[in-house]
Amino acid sequence: MSDRTGATNPYGTPSTTGPEPVRTYQGTVNKIVRTVLRLPVISGVVGKKLLTLHIVGRKSGRAYDVPVAYTRHDGSLLIGTALRPWVKNLLAGEPVQASLGGKPRTFVPVVHTGEQEVMRLYEIIARENKTNAKFNGIGFTEDGSPNKADIYQTWQQGGVVVELKPR
To answer: Where is the composition biased (Polar residues) (predicted)?
Structure first.
């Protein structure tokens, strides 16, 4: 991973201040979302944009259920996020379980951290999910395209893209 801090944004001035910080109430919101994603009828609707990752802590061995927004792309699922502690538990080549409104399925995670890959994949995510884009500090240009200066800023502030490949 290259140095993300201090570099001038090659795409110009961002239109936002960057990704939204994790709010103090996020734990409560996550509990509600996890519950909703377990409900048979509702999860089919909500599960079109949200999934639950079932992650095991690499040090603690503790199981975590993390609700996240995703975008389908070329047979994989893309998750744009900051480099949160749960991301660090996704070990290269180690399968992970995810529920998309049904029984858990197995995926192989790839965590993209490089500038060009994050820029390319975040643009795909932003086009498909404007709410996720807003949460990650990505605005849009007058023609409706994701703002590249914002995407760069998101990467610069620690943004990564997790790709879940079906196993």
So the answer is: 1-18
Give the domains, in start order, of the chain with CATH numbers. 26-166 (2.30.110.10)
Beta strands in the chain (DSSP E): 50-56, 63-69, 71-73, 76-82, 96-99, 105-112, 159-166
Alpha carbons 105 and 103: distance in angstroms, whole number:
6
**Under a CB-based contact definition with an 8 Å cutoff, are residues 162 and 111 in contact?**
yes
pLDDT per residue over 29-50, tens digit each?
A: 666 666 666 666 665 655 568 8
Q: For the whole model, what pTM was predicted?
A: 0.85
Q: Where are the alpha helices (DSSP H) in 47-97?
A: 85-88
